[in-house]
Amino acid sequence: MSSSVGYYVSAADIEARRRRELRADVASALARLAGVRARARGIGLAIPAVRGGFTDDTSSDDLQALLDRVSAAHADADESINAAWRQKWRAEIGKATGGTVVTGLSAQDELAAAKSGPDRDTLALRSAVADAESLMADQGHRCDEEGVASAREVFAELAKAATVVRARSLSLEIAVIIQRSIVRRRDAAALEGERVRLLELVRDATPGDQEQLRDLVTTATDLEQVADLVFASIEREDRARHRRKVADATAEALAELGCVVGEEFESLLTTEQQAVVGFRAQDGYGLLVRLPEDGTSLLTAVVRAEDRAESGAHATAVQTAYCDETLPELHAKLRERGIQLGDTPFLRGDPGRAVPVAPAPLPGRQQKPATKTTVKERHHES
């Protein structure tokens, strides 16, 4: 007998996934901001921290608001560091050039430099120093410490260069140092930001994988393959977590509807992909529940014990009552518990139509136990 019905089920909690992604984004953004604040302290600038934190239960709206605050603080900090760096670098120029203020060439200077004369080399030297000074003032705050130290050292040589060829060579060297330093610092910041992000995501991976994944994320210099492992473990745990959620919600809902739900119902539903509950008001009849391994569908079918009629007025009445009365209430209770069912069934078997595969035996009947654990009835208190 049957009266089987199947509904597609959302395979994941979309809101939970969004919160997870935002938690990882916030953690990464906070780590980058901490790095910016440390750089700021290195030039005597105090950047305030962003207030607020988050937990696993923080809503996506609150997480997004926190992420926006951190991003704004990061932008403000960059602007402040840039201004402070310019001021500090200008102060160092005098030391490197013996007190001479270096500025760019005016239009008149450029015209004079184009002509032959005793000041041509002097103006060319001045131009090379001015170009390097301007580049350091504009881009120095984006460099890492190694780049800044190297650029300063070369700039000190540039300020003392005696020939135009030497000055231009040193000015070009500074430009290369700065460009490489910016790329190096950007890549390092991106790597550490991704590391923090993955460490936050590991918290949602399969528990047995978490320690190994943390070690891999912490020590890896190339996180691309490690990220694949993290995401694969999260996907497995999401699927298992979702199936446990569906199984628990189904057990609670069926108990509230007066069914005889055994203690092993949830474990059977998740490990064996199917379990049976009895109808308390209809001895010998029950409900087969199936939850496939991918967790994307939930199927139910009315089943009977061997000593109960497969057809007839009473059997049809049991099936009809389930379809007309119990099924709508079951759907409502599942949705109340956050299980997202499809609006319409993808499978619908009318009363009397056979269930596709043989059902498991009804609880309470003589049967070979699956485990040594005694199956006890779940009691629901209204």
Could you name the key traits of this structure?
alpha+beta, 10 helices, 7-stranded antiparallel β-sheet, disordered C terminus, 382 residues
What does this structure look like?
The protein is of the alpha+beta class. It has helices spanning 14-42, 60-96, 107-113, 120-139, 145-159, 164-202, 207-219, 224-256, 265-271, 313-336; strands spanning 5-8, 259-262, 274-279, 285-290, 297-304, 347-348, 377-378. A seven-stranded antiparallel beta sheet has the order 6-1-5-4-3-2-7. A hairpin with a 6-residue loop joins β4 (285-290) and β5. α1 runs parallel beside α2.
At a glance:
This protein is an alpha+beta fold and 382 residues long. The chain has helices at residues 14-42, 60-96, 107-113, 120-139, 145-159, 164-202, 207-219, 224-256, 265-271, 313-336; strands at residues 5-8, 259-262, 274-279, 285-290, 297-304, 347-348, 377-378.
Number of helices: 10
The strands making up the biggest β-sheet line up spatially as 6-1-5-4-3-2-7
In total, the number of strands is: 7
Instruction: Please give the largest β-sheet.
Output: 7 strands, antiparallel
Termini Cα gap: 31 Å
What is the N-to-C succession of helices and strands?
A: EHHHHHHHHEHEEEHEE
Strand percent estimate: 5-15%
Average residue-wise pLDDT: 82
The Rg value, from CA coordinates, equals 35 Å
State the share of residues found in helices, binned by percent. Answer: 55-70%
Shape: rod-shaped
Broad structural category: alpha+beta
Poorly predicted sequence stretches spanning 5 or more consecutive residues: 99-107, 356-382
